[in-house]
């Protein structure tokens, strides 16, 4: 069901689950992409005369109020983007939430405080989650699921509440699933996937399924050192998941059997320490000094990755190629991002970190085919897993 199926929304209280989990520096938002992505659905509901109640999480508080994780900066930013005040309830389902919702007029928007301040949100106990979902549902007449970045979580405001109210997918969830389905169903070939980020253990499932679908896997980021080690290289003091070396050897063998090209860097930018001012040098990937760590792919590798990306007709990218937050180790990520903007087919940037990286490096959203708001969610979608937050909408 989509929003249109909910009928006339004038005067109805609509609970919207958005993903407003943005990176913060103190109380300033360093990348507001997820807030901006949530605006079209909220605006649409507001224009339809609904009383809009936004529920969302920020970070991983421990099931109790914690000012460090308050949604206050996010509610302020949402108000700026919507061009009007957005009230913030100081709790999730308590007195403040009820009063704030009762005061809403048609076409007005409020935000409930961080939904993870309530232990019921993330509880593994079905009854506890359902009880909290019941309290959330009692605030509203309908539910719109628009937080694509959290649909892989079986949590009260994502999953259980949809069972209690007339519900629909919001525009963002609709749009994200349509684009990602193009990657899983019939990607135009060649289909290249660029994977980076720190941990290979977060990507095992998706690598497994990509070995059946992609033509080329380009590997960078911290996880590449486990690949390099599995291929017989010394990796100095780089990040290494020794317990994954056997799994990675298995992937390299499977890729060979299936004709999938796994491309590893041939050169690496290394430094003695994980620090912005640590002296950086470029070395061959098979000659990394024992006392240095790899912090970016080197220029030769970045150029080779860029060529493979530009030659593909479908590209999905998740995870930075290096420590892009530090200028000396940002070049690999910049070159890969630039190549994605030059793809003649579909280019998709998946994940909060990669999306934040491309914006920090000065690219704009419009230069890419699609920037997904989902990190874990987009990977699990590609993996073909059942995502509880989508599954519940279909039932
Ligand atoms: C994300 O940042 O990927 C989503 O907001 C989900 O957050 P979580 O990993 O803390 O559930």
Automatic annotation (TrEMBL):
Please report the organism this UniProt entry assigns to the protein.
Solicola gregarius
Tell me the domain of life: Bacteria
Which gene is annotated as encoding this protein in its UniProt record? pgk
Q: Where in the cell is it found?
A: Cytoplasm
Protein name, UniProt field: Phosphoglycerate kinase
Biological process, per Gene Ontology? gluconeogenesis; glycolytic process
State which pathway it belongs to: Carbohydrate degradation; glycolysis; pyruvate from D-glyceraldehyde 3-phosphate: step 2/5
One annotated GO molecular function is:
ADP binding
Listed binding positions for ATP are 203, 294, 325, 351-354
List the catalytic activities from the record.
(2R)-3-phosphoglycerate + ATP = (2R)-3-phospho-glyceroyl phosphate + ADP
Which CDD domains does this chain map to? Answer: Phosphoglycerate_kinase
